[in-house]
Design brief:
By secondary structure, the chain is an alpha+beta fold. It has two domains: 1-36, no CATH class; 40-116, Arc Repressor Mutant, subunit A (Orthogonal Bundle), CATH 1.10.10. It has five helices and four strands, in the order H-H-H-E-E-H-H-E-E. The chain has a four-stranded antiparallel β-sheet with strand order 1-2-4-3. Strand 3 (99-101) and strand 4 (107-110) form a beta hairpin. Helix 2 packs antiparallel against helix 3 and helix 3 packs across helix 4 (72-79). The longest helix is centred in the N-terminal third of the chain and has 25 residues, at 12-36. The radius of gyration is 18 Å and the shape is elongated.
Amino acid sequence: MRLTQMEVEQSPLLAQSIFHHLTRRLRQTEAVLAMVGYRRVEDRLRHFLMLLKQEVGYPVSSGTRIGVRLTHQQLANAIGTTRVTVTRLINQLREEGWLTIDRHRHIVLSANAPLS
């Protein structure tokens, strides 16, 4: 949607909404940049899952369900590693009780899943 500067200036509600969305997008960008800065792949994966928890997660009885289904390859691409590494780390996090996979193949972060 294209808007002229005059349209934005004439509508305080529109300007406020645009500002809100820009602020949210800036926070997302900062979170992704922080994630990329982690040396350990496990830290990047945990951080990325916590970011997804904030953005598309919703509470369920066992914790927070990530509202989108992601393949191990998609997770690997997002954090800059291989699918094999993500599979190994997901299994490790499952063993730790940090996450589970529900019957619909969605990731569920446990209620007490700390960032590190």
